[in-house]
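Researcher: Quick test of sequence recovery. Tokens follow.
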């Protein structure tokens, strides 16, 4: 038997697979918008974040029922549901009998802060199952599985492009461009990093909301097209302020005051959690001094700084190191 004929058989016998998924840092914009059929649809545009995320390993358990999936650590029910759905999807595509297995998750994401931790787990899981079956699944299929497993999903399976994504339907409404405008983000957590139950948050339906969010979407389109960081900051702040009617973050005015006082373009706050960020234009004169003053001001207000990162490729640990030497970031680091 030649090497060329052995390789497909080896792939068919594979019983383990791995997958990984990134996270995000909350939303730039989230609300209700008109879709292509003029229906009101809940949708969002996330702020991508490179580095932290979830990894998954899936091992088949031959002869078991497809819903016999155990997960470690225990309690990751959404990831388990995604594994069962992905097993059935992959088996159907291979024309084979599905079986259960063992799912192991690892990652460095805090839960319930609005960084897409559950979606990251789910996507990593689906990718691990698909890898174990040797079946490549398109992003649209992963999104469909994620929504069925979670009830709502972030668009992490589509990469880091800015998308208007209907999180409860798992579909892309609009590709806004190749990348968000360049920004340096000083991340922090509000409310002491307390978790938020995403699905318990109130929805938006009013005609006034449709008009307001439609206006912000047009602003964001222009910001992406022209790489306008200042306009990006205005959209993030306005969207956070609208959502403040429901989230009622006590630190909101302090956060926006710090942004104004340090020359930030604006703020963004997870619309389903307590992670937040101050957005700076990397071309701003005296940027490093502004970042230092920002982290110190957050400390003074009792708001925990986490990590400074960018919306563009950058060796951040060297280019924008932590400049607040009064203390190290807390365990809530994102």
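Model:
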């Amino acid at each position: 038997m030649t090497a060329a004929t052995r390789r497909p058989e080896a792939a068919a016998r594979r019983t383990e697979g791995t997958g990984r998924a990134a996270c995000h840092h909350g939303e730039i914009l989230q609300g209700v918008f008109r879709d292509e059929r003029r229906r009101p649809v809940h949708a969002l545009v996330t702020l991508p974040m490179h580095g932290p995320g979830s990894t998954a390993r899936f091992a088949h358990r031959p002869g078991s029922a497809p819903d016999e999936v155990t997960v470690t650590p225990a309690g990751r029910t959404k990831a388990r549901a995604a594994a069962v759905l992905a097993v059935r999807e992959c088996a159907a595509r291979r024309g084979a009998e599905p079986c259960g297995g063992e799912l192991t998750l690892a990652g460095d994401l805090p839960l319930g802060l609005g960084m897409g931790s559950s979606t990251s787990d789910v996507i990593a899981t689906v990718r691990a199952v698909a890898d174990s079956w040797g079946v490549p699944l398109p992003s649209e299929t992963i999104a469909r599985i994620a929504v069925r497993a979670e009830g709502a999903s972030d668009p992490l399976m589509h990469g880091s492009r800015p998308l208007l994504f209907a999180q409860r339907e798992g579909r892309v409404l609009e590709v806004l461009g190749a990348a968000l405008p360049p920004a340096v983000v000083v991340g922090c957590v509000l409310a002491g990093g307390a978790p938020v139950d995403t699905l318990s948050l109130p929805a938006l339906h009013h005609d006034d909301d449709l008009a307001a969010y439609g206006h912000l979407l047009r602003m964001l389109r222009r910001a992406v097209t022209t790489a306008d960081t200042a306009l990006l900051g205005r959209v993030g702040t306005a969207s956070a302020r609208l959502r403040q009617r429901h989230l009622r973050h006590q630190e909101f005015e302090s956060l926006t005051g710090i942004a104004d006082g340090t020359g930030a373009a604006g703020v963004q706050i997870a619309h389903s959690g307590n992670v937040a960020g101050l957005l700076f234009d990397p071309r701003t004169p005296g940027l490093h001094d502004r970042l230092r003053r920002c982290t110190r001001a957050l400390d003074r207000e009792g708001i925990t700084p986490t990590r400074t990162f960018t919306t563009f490729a950058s060796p951040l640990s060297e280019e924008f190191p932590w400049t607040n030497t009064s203390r190290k970031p807390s365990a809530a680091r994102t």
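The mean pLDDT is 87.
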